[in-house]
Amino acid sequence: MQSKRLTSYLTQLTRLGCVNCFLVQEDDGLxxxxxxxxxxxxxxxxxxxxxxxPIQRILLTHSHVDHIGSLDGMAAALPNAAVLIGDRxxxxxxxxxxxxxxxxxxxxxxxxPGAKTQPTQLLKEGDHVGHLRVIETRGHTPGHLAFLDERDxxxxxxxxxxxxxxxxxxxxxxxxxGLANIATWHARTxxxxxxxxxxxxxDGVAMGHGTAIIGTEARDAMTDAVFHAEKKFGxxxxxxxxx
Length: 243
Prior knowledge:
This protein has one domain: Ribonuclease Z/Hydroxyacylglutathione hydrolase-like (Metallo-beta-lactamase, Chain A). Helix content is 23%, strand content 26%. It has helices at 41-49, 65-68, 71-77, 90-93, 179-182, 187-198, 217-232; strands at residues 2-5, 10-15, 19-26, 29-33, 55-59, 82-86, 121-123, 128-129, 132-136, 145-149, 154-156, 161-164, 166-169, 204-206, 213-214. The strands form three sheets. A seven-stranded mixed beta sheet has the order 1-2-3-4-5-6-7, covered by helices on one side. The protein has a six-stranded mixed beta sheet with strand order 8-9-10-11-14-15, covered by helices on one side. The chain has a two-stranded antiparallel sheet with strand order 12-13. α6 packs antiparallel against α7 (217-232). It starts with a strand and ends in an 11-residue tail after the last helix.
């Protein structure tokens, strides 16, 4: 697992060259954002040894297999760590793929393996986890969350965005990373969430897949990603789900 320090507070851990999770420095230790693929527990714990403080909490953007793959392993290794996920997304952690009457009709896509680990706290828009502000970014999944570090303006976007070659809204990922589009529940909803992210005063963006953009250039990249997606999604039907 490759470790890369992105900011004073943020370290990116990458497995197989394409799946990222993150360690965020907080006053009381570390927050792990997502748990990567299955079999990553030891690699994550080893990376955390080189940073200041123990992992105090496990924070999840969404319930796809490449983001909760090592959740049970991490929870077993860290029995006192809090486990946090979005209120809506918690149903997907239980493999409940039902949709609500006010949601798009599309069935959630991608692999939802579920987990034995139960969350200790459910999150909603505007909550804070340490210095991270919770932002609801539905679209890739029905309850996807992103997190903004209010200390330096770095956005942990999960799979709301994809960062290969250029920053793109999920559903509008390039052909060579088409799995991100295939696993997206509702691309138009993802675009609406990206509009919300574009309004933030960003000084960096890091994604579950691809290369982080650190610095104020993240703002221009975010705007370009939204405009590009708007051109693609200009038709009547959702380009991913067909409805």
